[in-house]
Amino acid sequence: MTGGHDPIPLCVPRDAAKYAAQAGARWDDSKRCFYWDGGVGGISENSPVRAYLPFRFRPDRRPPYVRPWMVPQSLWGWNLRAMLRREDWDRTRRDAYRRAGYRCRICGGVGPDHPVEADEGWAYDDTRFIQVLKGVIALCPDCHAVRHWGRSMATGKEQHALCWLAWVNGWTLVQARTCADNAMAHWHWRSGHTGWTCDITWVEKVFGVRPMADATARAAETQQGLVALARQSRNDEMR
Ligand SMILES: [Zn+2]
């Protein structure tokens, strides 16, 4: 059942390889990846392949599959890496990689140097100013760079991120620019509030881990370091 469809990369966890193969997915040994060759329309309603589709290919999803999603400035550094013990963070992020079969959950791709990175899925309560962790997912470096748009700007990778934003969502560059500008405006608005709090109970519930005793102090220290760094890079730019 090839019928001229582009192969779709699948996010198959290693322990689900048998089910993917039984459902008709093709293993490409050179790419170390399962593919679906029959087009999205060729996936039956109850096929396990549905669960392995990257967001970009899922029939129940519409663009944007990825968009800039920046952490308000007062919460920079309030991430799991800073707040958890090293081994707890490693367990959390590796679980995300494993569940995605070491492919990007959004586009199905992988990076040239390392396949995927862990992205914290924050939800924002713009009324009560709470940043709530909803999960951790595996993203390729390019999709991850779109999410952390501010950092991509600061490191000279904005144009690449813009092209990627357009490509993944099937947009023109103008549409991608509008999306990024809106995200930046929203980020400025959120960053205008300093009373944000951060809720990471998701990781406590799912992995049974606790933030380190000095997590708050560590996060605050990381935040100050990152703000200083951003100020420095802005100053360098103006020189
Ligand atoms: Zn990706």
Describe, in plain words, how this protein is organized in 3D.
This protein is of the alpha+beta class. The protein has two domains: 8-53, no CATH class; 73-238, no CATH class. The protein has helices spanning 17-22, 49-52, 80-83, 86-99, 141-147, 149-154, 158-169, 173-191, 201-207, 215-238; strands at residues 8-10, 26-28, 33-36, 117-125, 130-139, 197-199. It has a three-stranded antiparallel beta sheet with strand order 1-3-2. It has a three-stranded mixed beta sheet with strand order 4-5-6. Strand 4 (117-125) and strand 5 (130-139) form a beta hairpin. The longest helix is centred in the last third of the chain and has 24 residues, at 215-238. The relative contact order is 0.15. The model has no long low-confidence stretch (mean pLDDT 94). The site of zinc ion has 8 residues, from helix 5.
Question: What keywords describe this structure?
Answer:
alpha+beta; three-stranded antiparallel sheet; 6 strands; binds zinc ion
Number of helices: 10
Uncertain residue ranges: none
Tell me which ligands are bound.
zinc ion
- Major sheet: arrangement of strands: 1-3-2
State the distance separating the first and last CA atoms: 59 Å
Rg result = 19 Å
Order of helices and strands: EHEEHHHEEHHHHEHH
User: What is the averaged pLDDT score?
Assistant: 94
Estimate percent helicity.
40-55%
Strand content: 5-15%
How many extended strands? 6
Domain tally: 2
Largest sheet: 3 strands, antiparallel
Structural class: alpha+beta
The coarse silhouette is globular
